[in-house]
Amino acid sequence: MNRVQIRSSERALSVGTWLIVGGAMLYSVLTVTPLMAAHTPAAWRWTAPILPLVVDAAVVIVVRLDSVLARLGGHGGAWPVALRWMTGTMTLALNVGVSALAGDLVGVAVHSVAPLLLIVTAEAGLAYRRALTAAVLAVETRKRAEQDAQEEAAAEREENRLRAAREQREHEAAIAREQREHEAHLTREEAARQDRIRREEAERLEAAERAEREAAERREQIREQQQAERERLERQALQQRELEARERAERERREQAREQERMERERAALLAAGPPQVKLPEEQARATVAAAFAAGVPVRVAAELSGWSVGWASARYQEHRDGNAAAPALG
């Protein structure tokens, strides 16, 4: 049984005891008061409940003090025992008094239940409390022993911990010393590696700059070559355009010459045809007048060649003159 269970048992005993005491006190007051009233002068009958209350108060004192002494492991001596039995006997006598005087044995038995229960409960409660107190002391003794053992074990563990901590510190100091030496070695190696890296980086940068300069020179050469090639291609293109322009102009000139020659032949043919027997169609007449105008033939001769009137031929001449005058203005 642990301490919690013991405390729970004490609470159950205390609650049960006080319930029995309270019930017995109430029952005793209700039972004894008529007895006291019957044996008290009429003027003092109001004092009838005082005696059962006094006796019950003594019972409460006994139960309460016995519980405290039992919890502390003490003993009050003979007087508490005498008071306990005297209050129990008085309570029993007062409760069965009316029935005993009337010769009612059943009433005596019935009214003796509460006092006897109170007396036995007080004695049993005291025994229970002493037993519980002994159990609590045993538990506390065991716990103190366990605590002492735990403290001794804790002290031993603390000593072992301190010894282990000391050994750990010595081990860590040795490791730290080795670590410092190792870090110093690594630092030297890292410095050498960094120096080698810087040299390699400088060489790489120098090589990169040299390669960049060479690439820039190659790009410049390529650019100059491309520029020269573009200029050459532009000159060739210009020469080609000039040649094509000359050829086109020559072709146009030859075509104009051929056209002029054709027109000359046509005019000569028209002028050589002589006056027609009948009036020419208007389209053919217009072509004949135009050829005559171009050849500088007079209007009258142009009229004879076309078969139309001089006025009509003169009007066509005027149209050609107006057209020739407008052409230079537009140009």
Distance between the termini: 137 Å
**Number of contiguous helices:** 7
> Approximately what portion of the residues adopt beta-strand conformation?
under 5%
Helical amount? over 70%
Shape: elongated
Q: What quaternary form is this?
A: single chain
- The SSE order reads HHHHHHH
Task: Pick out the low-confidence regions.
Answer: none
Mean pLDDT: 78
Task: Provide a compact summary of the structure.
The protein is an all-alpha fold. It has two domains: 3-161, no CATH class; 245-330, no CATH class. Helix content is 89%, strand content 0%.
Structural key phrases:
single chain, 331 residues, mainly alpha, 2 domains, 0% strand, elongated, membrane, DUF2637 domain-containing protein, transmembrane
